[in-house]
Amino acid sequence: MKTNRRSQAVFPRGIVSHLPESAARKRQVEERILSVFAQWGFQEIIPGAFEFFDQLQQGTDDRLLEDSYKLTDRGSGRVMVLRPDVTLQIARIAATTLAGAPKPLRLSYRSSAYRYENDQARKNREVSQVGVELLGLEQPEADAEMVAIAVESLERAGLRSYQIALGQAAFVRGMIERPDLGPEPRAAIRDAVLRKDLSQLEAITAEAHLSPAHRQGLLELPRLFGKEEILDRAEAVADNPASKGAVANLREVYRFLRIYGLDRYVVMDLGEARGFDYYTGILFEVFAEGVGQKVGGGGRYDRLIGKFGEPCPATGFALDVDLLQEALERQRALSEYRGPDFLIVDLSKDKTVALELAKGLRKRGDRAARDIIRRELERSIAYAKESRIAQVLVLGARGAKPDEAVVIDCRSNERKKLKIRKILGKS
Questions:
Q1: What's 104's DSSP letter?
Q2: Where in the chain is the domain with CATH 3.40.50.800?
Q3: Each residue of 339-393: pLDDT tens digit?
Q4: What would the pLDDT profile of 228-283 be if each residue is shown by its tens digit?
Q5: Which fold does the domain 342-423 belong to in CATH?
Q6: Beta sheet of 314-320, edge-to-edge order
């Protein structure tokens, strides 16, 4: 049976290839954000693409590893996974290779995570991320720093319209994980809170044997969304020490955000149940206008590193570069794409002048390409325009002296003769 090659996908689903313009924009976004990380004192780490399955298994749930891509190491016969999560990797590195390093550790990264997503999810299977991990500090100021760096990163990237939803995992956990709730009602309540389905939450809590105060507190969870005044409402319904402590912690984080002058970017979401099992304190999500998914998020995860070695408090966040790039493009916040600065066309037989000109331009920082192919001049000019090259420099043109070049502006089509020394900025 013959295979219809046209019916086969050119690329695996969920894998994105960035062509020159998109690649340039992506690098622009990444470099802007990485410059922020560096200014805040974070040092870049480049984790390996593969990890041993059994090592990562210590620190995560089976579902994440189940959705990872696996292969067998030919040398040892052990199962390896293609990196499914960067934070998980850094936690393993911090607990082993960097176990004796002085704390706190301020680590940044630019990496991709790979995990299987079903076709209906419409998510990429390769997720490009930039992020930071702050390890060894448990103070609320460390959490506030994560939000502050996230805001500054978005600003530096050029994003104009965005919002950060700030929650506290311990608050929701304290309201749901109670002795008077069995495993099934807990899971159902958590799902209803996650979907902010108030009618379903009312039905579940009506059937459970709860005190009036506890039931009322659970019903309030989907409504605890807004500005700072939400903290007062959350404190009023918190009927357990864990939730009360979580509100106090969030107040302190928010106080630091006010000092930073960033409170205007933040809304409270005390009913956020996403990441319930992973986060131990604050958690936040970044939403940008024009994109239907969150473009980033993070929070405190104090239990993770201890699964690989000595316990260590930790907080951090990551931004999805592809989604952030999409938001920036929709908001027209990225600079116009530019190709090389010059295309050098030499119509003479001796290429010495052309090569010296190209060398001189590159030495001063310009991007210069040689049009090595032999073709008509007008076709070279058309090629330069399609490639977004700014100017064409023609050597050996009719009527031009040996020390001159015809300079063609690809936008205006203006043509003029200039001395080569003048093009190179020499007197």
A1: P
A2: 342-423
A3: 999 999 999 988 999 999 999 999 999 999 999 998 999 999 999 999 999 999 9
A4: 999 999 999 998 999 999 999 999 999 999 999 999 999 999 998 787 779 999 99
A5: Rossmann fold (3.40.50)
A6: 43-44, 105-114, 126-135, 314-320, 296-300, 282-288, 162-168, 266-269, 225-226
